[in-house]
Amino acid sequence: MKKSILMTKRQWMVLTVWLMAVAVWAQNNGLNPVYKVQLGDITYEKNEVKKKVTVGKVLGVIADVAEGRVTDVNNEEYIPLASQKVRAGLTHVRRLKVVDDSEAEDARYLVTATLTDIAASRKLKHYDRKDSKGREYTETKTYYGAVATVALNFKNLKTGEITTSAISGRCSEYSLANSADEAIRTALSELANNIYEYYNECYPIRANIIERGTEKKDKTKELYIDVGSRFIGEDIHFDVFVVGQVAGRETRKQIGRVRVREVLGDDISLCKVQKGGKDIKAAFDRGDAIVAISTD
Question: What is the pLDDT at residue 69?
């Protein structure tokens, strides 16, 4: 009896390890490798005036301060905040993991960043008003806009290849920011959003369509994919493709689009078909291999 119990424990351990391996495979579905990223230096490249400044240009600078580019802001003060926003943007990319120095040996990419512009602008707006007695007057208000641009350099640590992407965040003057500081902070926050949206498109999530859901007449209304909470949330959009092979190479033909309606677990989500329900049902009926690739 003792030997029988020992064997049962051993079998249980093997089964547990196997289930854990299956769970990890299911979460990754073999299609979405996560790359470790080491974040290197983030520097600021200050725009300097190279030409000789004449009296006319001095007057032009004064005019810029009055309405236009704000020259009395110490943009370098925003470098630490900009660095935080760059890191935050990269951290939210689904298939990138920003690592500390302790994990740098396993990093796939070294990312450095150059802030090429942090600038605010001033805009005067005039409003025709009437006072309580009906007398007309003009009210002048000052609003601010800003732009923050970063050049992100991705160096593949295995191949040495470097790719550079310029990404900007803006605060429009029409957003009615009340100070240059507010406008710059808004632009930097948008910069973070634009960074992770851009790289989510560069490294999309790929999912197998594993089951049809509700159908109506000749159209599929819902379907299930094998990607869940580890990578995505609700309202993420996927393009749907029929997958084939020609000469050993994968071919894809787009047949529709879906939106994640509900995340049901680590490796399963329910999607609503937004486009191509008829073609998707026909692909199911034929037994085609169908995949979905994220678009946002």
Answer: 62
Span 54-78, pLDDT tens digits: 444 444 443 444 445 665 566 778 8
Could you tell me which residues come within 8 angstroms of residue 44 by beta carbon, excluding any fewer than 6 positions away? 75, 76, 79, 82, 114, 115, 118
Residue 69, exposed/middle/buried by CB under 10 A (0-12, 13-18, 19+)?
Answer: middle
> Residue 232 is encoded by which pair of tokens?
């995505």
DSSP annotation of 59 reads: H
Q: Any idea which residue has 């965040």 for tokens?
A: 169
Q: Look at residue 272 and give its three-state secondary structure.
A: strand
Question: What is the C-alpha radius of gyration for the chain, rounded to an integer number of angstroms?
Answer: 27
The Cα–Cα gap between 250 and 258 comes to 22
Over range 199-204, report the average pLDDT: 93
**In sequence order, what DSSP letters do the residues of 159-182 get, joined into one string?**
T--EEEEEEEEEE-GGG-BSSHHH
198 Cβ contact partners less than 8 Å away, ≥ 6 residues apart: 165, 167
Query: 96-99 and 109-130: which strand pairing?
Result: unpaired
Q: Give 120's strand partners.
A: 70, 146
40: Cβ–Cβ under 8 A, 6 or more apart, which residues? 110, 111, 112
The amino acid at residue 289 is A
